[in-house]
Amino acid sequence: MNKLLIIDDEQVFLESISSQLKLRGFDVITRTSGKDVEQLIKKDESIDVVLLDLKMPDMDGEEVLKRIKETRPEVQVVILTGHGDTESAVQLARMDAFSYLQKPVELEKLIDVLKKARSKATFLIAETKGKKGKPAKVIVFQLLLSIGVGLLIYLLPTPAGLSPQGHRFLAFLLSVIFLWITEAIPIGVTALLVGGGLVLFGIQKPEAAWSPFASPAVMFVMMIIMFGVIINEVGLTNRILYGILKIGGRKLIPFSLFLCIVSSLLSSVFHDATITIIFLFSMIPIFNKLNITPYTSNNFSKFMTILIPLSASAGGFGTILGGGRNPIAVEFLEKHMGIHIGFVEFLICQLPIVIFVSLTTWIICYLIFPPKLTELPSEIQSAKLPPMTKREKGVAFIFALAFIFWSLGDLTHLHVSVIAALSIIAICGLGYVKFKTIIEKFAWDAWLVFGAGVSLGVAMLDTGAGKWLADQFAPLLYGQSKLVQYFGIGIFSSFISSFMSNSAATALCLPIMYPMAAELGLSVKHITLILPAATSFIWLVIGCPPSIIAYSTGYFSQVDFIKVSILWAIACVFVYSLIISFYWPLIGF
Asked: In the chain, which residues fall in CATH 3.40.50.2300?
């Protein structure tokens, strides 16, 4: 069980508050001084929250806080102050204290703050465990394996119909894929290696290798991720959670089903990684109420922590806004085929299908990890939220305005990236969120991987490697019904997406599938929408940011994930293929 450490030099207060907290279920350790705090929290890793007095004679709270954060930064510290110490407490909050409270403090208020601190600590501890470095021997082996696989392909005779440049590209691509799978080096570093490697090995000229990193689609993805940072920063996420709890209720089946569908639909508008973060944070306090930790994870916690990223990923193809794979596909079609798919047309074709794959996601997760819990704890029912702040109203209005302009893109002819850029300028210019805050919390690795995926896709097209791969795969689908062809293309794309980000997989598969479409008599517009949908259904944890984020919490293993994901991916591709076989002809697409 996680422990609360209380440090206060007032013995009477210390005994009183510790007794009251023990009666409320807290495992409490007390100290009258912070002198040995480093040794204590090093030795006892179950300490996750510290209640710290600001004024102590031997060592003040500022020094104790500093030592705690230097030793274990994931531990959350709540500061206790006397009257007149508020300014000092605010300064400590800037030094990464979780919160501060004035003495005398109401017990219920204290317990509420401690629980929130524990929720944050639980998430950070799990994230820290997921980021622990690998042994040097493992890293060296994975690097050699990645290089060796690419070298082996390069040394093989160049296949008939494939150019030497395309042969070098496929060898390089395989090494990159293995680096992404093994994470021998950070995925962002591998993404930078893509641009440099394409030039180094004579596959692309510098401009062709690097310009995709700043393409309109990649820049749009960057700004959508920034929107995620912004809505988290101003507190709109709490209102989203409140609405889900209010409508979904505490019964597990309707709650989880509603959460699944809402997660998918919101991921069609916001980035799927953003929605995953919002809902995962909302579930951890519930796990804490039930004394479920990453080390005591059960079917309920596995069900919820796998359901959230899969439902978010399953909804990411609903509109152009949902993920990087969507604008990448639309831009590729317009650039290379001269065919335009507008915002509204994309939404009409894809969004209704999101509901069906979301339901499929819930069914698969529930079947594989049926939770014994039937009702959530009564304490999780949120109280009524206060009125929206000026920042919340401002950001909500700007985003709503941006969504309207995105919807009218066919009339205004404004690129989606222009509208996104103007929205962020307005938000920062009006002071709702500082741009420095956005930069500090931005997921740079994810953005670089998007750019690398586009760069690899362009190289696959330029070298003829895409056409060669299509020639090898297409014969398997000759003479088949459209349903089988859609399903085959979907499974191929889904499998590829399991080894890299879905945006990278979409960028890679587009130049493979376009030549195949011509040979099979399929519409390139259909292919353009199938790929970002199919690459949403990944087989491995590393397949997309939502699954990586969820895995980092520690509540499920990769084996747990695979038990669900392979069946889920195949089922979702089939459901999607079945629906578009009659729905798209019905709407004249």
From this structure: 3-130
